[in-house]
Design brief:
The protein is an alpha+beta fold. It is built from two helices and eleven strands.
Amino acid sequence: MSVTYFEDQNIIEINPEHLVRLKQNAIRSPLRRARYCLHRGHDDKVHEMVIAFCHNSYCRPHRHTDKSESFHLIEGEMLVVFFDDTGCVTRCLEMAPPGCGKTFFYRLNSPLWHTVLPLSECVVFHETTAGPFIPDQKDVASWAPDECDTAAVNSFLRRIKKEIDLLEVRL
């Protein structure tokens, strides 16, 4: 499980020290990620999180049938990978912080299968989505391995990286 922290302050600040702690906690986490929740609880209508993913973290592809989400890059680089219903890569967004010449913000408004692939040792981004959080509300891809199956995850990641390379050649 990833490490999750909730804040219960009226004014929440995120400074460089918070980011250092968040990244350290992601490194120590079994899933190699950690999140700082800026909302007060799972029932809030708006969920904002600052999330750190380590390079070797895997998030099973999923989709949200009735929610939008947005990412704003703070530090590091990552790919947001989109898939069709059979698990074939259809599009990639390479994201980096503002000033790097790459996409630094994206919003997803439809139920597309997607995942994130960190490109740097650690990537930190701000995510916003609608609440409340209901664990079974997102669909997880049956064509993608569970996070606990390391061998299958490694095989899956090798396959989609090849597809990404081919997709970029065709562009």
